[in-house]
Amino acid sequence: MESIVVQKYGGTSVGNIERIFNVANRVIATKNKGNKVVVVVSAMGDTTDELVEKAKQINPNPSNRELDMLLSTGEQISISLLAMAIQSLGHEAISLTGPQCGILTTSNHKNARIEKINSNRIKKELEENKIVIVAGFQGANENGDITTLGRGGSDTSAVALSVAINANKCEIYTDVDGVYTTDPRLVPTARQISKVSYDEMLELASLGAGVLHPRSVELARKYNMTLIVRSSLSNNPGTEVVEVNAMENTIVSGVALDKNIAKISVIEVPDKPGIAFKIFSALASNNIYFDMIIQNVNRAHVNDITFTVKIDELHEALEVTKKISDEIGAKEVLCDESVVKVSIVGTGIAGSADIASSFFQTLYDLGINIQMISTSEIKISCIINEDNGINALNALHEKFCNNNPIEENKAV
Amino acid sequence: MESIVVQKYGGTSVGNIERIFNVANRVIATKNKGNKVVVVVSAMGDTTDELVEKAKQINPNPSNRELDMLLSTGEQISISLLAMAIQSLGHEAISLTGPQCGILTTSNHKNARIEKINSNRIKKELEENKIVIVAGFQGANENGDITTLGRGGSDTSAVALSVAINANKCEIYTDVDGVYTTDPRLVPTARQISKVSYDEMLELASLGAGVLHPRSVELARKYNMTLIVRSSLSNNPGTEVVEVNAMENTIVSGVALDKNIAKISVIEVPDKPGIAFKIFSALASNNIYFDMIIQNVNRAHVNDITFTVKIDELHEALEVTKKISDEIGAKEVLCDESVVKVSIVGTGIAGSADIASSFFQTLYDLGINIQMISTSEIKISCIINEDNGINALNALHEKFCNNNPIEENKAV
After folding, report:
1. How does B97-113 read in b/e, with b if 16+ C-beta sit within 10 Å?
2. Residue B95 touches partner A, C-beta closer than 8 Å
3. Are the C-beta atoms of residues A103 and A117 closer than 8 Å to each other?
4. Which residue intervals define the domain ACT in the entry (chains A, B) (predicted)?
5. Which of B74, B267, B290, B331 is deepest in the core (most CB within 10 A)?
6. Is B86 an 8 Å CB contact of chain A?
7. Predicted structure pTM score
8. What interface predicted TM-score (ipTM) does this complex get?
9. Nearest CA in chain B to A81
10. Could you tell me the domains of chain B?
């Protein structure tokens, strides 16, 4: 039986005419192996940024609906050009916008969520033996208004379509060879991982390892869709994201450094029930992501509450927090942008008591002060001063990923 | 009662940010006078040409469907930016693509015809007091595939929408003050006409006077929609296109020069029934426009057939003609690109016997050889050598439009 493969190519992979033909050839090669192929593409190179820039020149606060109308043209240009390239190489191809693919989303413009996919059109075109090229990052709400899916939207489109058409696998093409134990630009000894679990990938993605967007990984995990991260410029097999029981017996899969965070502290919060709730529900209702909450008692009936936010949401987060802070009678709101988060991720973390102590020991040996700690089944994260980030990352990678000393210890 | 005004702005009118704001201000001014306003816009400046160029770099013969997918982004960018501009000036606006406006077309990509408009969405937005901005030039076929309407498509969109929503008038904004007696760049004494009939406008448009596309004028005539041609850069009232009985008593409204034609001759065609039919039905089925057919008998049972085509369709027309020519056993196919068409247009032409002789006399006085002649109720056209074009145009304008000598004659 023919298998169905969904391939997603990012903006750099279709950044110019030569690269568009590179993608066209890869897609055709996959088709020639006897697969039905659906290709999801992003906007070419910097197109999206250029369109946003144009919008800002006209209106510093453009409406989200009109911004979606504008931005969605970026992918529409890529899909038509890729279809033309494939056709010029003698193969049948058809491009479809998000709305044409039946991708129904919420009306939350600029950050819509996929609600349903009516995949009849795609299936019909696949049955007619065409290569189907789909605009990533976009859909339409129930009124037919064009929506975009926000960050990582094209990855999400690819996984959601894979699920909708029951694809055998979803390949995410990018400009690196796969998922690494850590960022190779920061740690020269970083090595590529052949398999990683959804949960680990999720942590690595949300920690700024950056190859895949968490939303797409969550979706793949939910429907158990095989996800493969590969380079569009090499033939490296890449990294397969799989269920945890399909994993090799590694304890720590990766080490991550997230520089794009900031710390907000609300000082001297009256110690009454529901106060923390007020702050975090206000942030949530403004779609601001927060993390790593710490509440420490200073003196009787007064607390400090500290949490981290994404640096590009800091301005908005501060506004919301200050407003609530005034309402609840806190003393002041402080913020610190000079922090980073280092983390280790691995399915074996919860099962090994040594790991946490080994983690803290490594930072202690470097004389690094830990400001905040957060742990989960498969992750340990610390907030430290940004000056220590690279050092900590290298030491943690050396400790957990290169020589696998923990596994050795465990074996003893 | 509030009236509904449809305004169409061409690509140069929205060619940069300053001009987009100029359009935004005009639209708002119209709204502030108590009108409901629908604005139809083309792609900014040279966007369409740039997109075509990009496509050709990838595929010298891109599929029309994919070309439509690509080109339609041009208008989508304009409408979102214009909506943002109007919003930044404090007014409610919403942009809609052709498909979102319910513009249902044939599937003839690159040159689709509007079949039906479901105007519910536009009406709903107008009722909510919004300025509605519509992407001209585009629609969707019954499968939801994006189509474009070909040359003059945005004018056609504007008129068709005006009819669908029962607008009081349709204003076509351009970079000239209205319709002129002839091209002011070629004839310095050309003057703007305040009123012209649909039929005259149709002839002027199809003869290369160029302000309005014939399809839009035909549609306006069919539904008796008041059409106004105005400048987006001045407050000149422009030219109103009206029914013939609303006309002033001018005999000749305009003089036109069409340089974009070429002459094709099929030499020594066997004189059998149905031969001419074969040539012209083949051209028609290839969507090639032809005009000015002459068939002259050379000798017994052999004819020459000569006709004109648009210069940008010459290549295709020659291919089709040569194929048929071989089939029917004609001797050869010749072509001549060094020809132009001069014409006079006016509702009074059929009623005045003097006009034709005066027309030919004018060319004769200049020593110009007439190669082909064609006349209608409201038009006389001649094919002459291109070197004589400007001279002929000026002389005919002087004769018929400036001093109105015919009217004087008539009065005698």
Report:
1. bbbbbbbbbeeebbbbe
2. yes
3. yes
4. 264-347
5. B74
6. no
7. 0.80
8. 0.78
9. B55
10. 3-175 (3.40.1160.10)
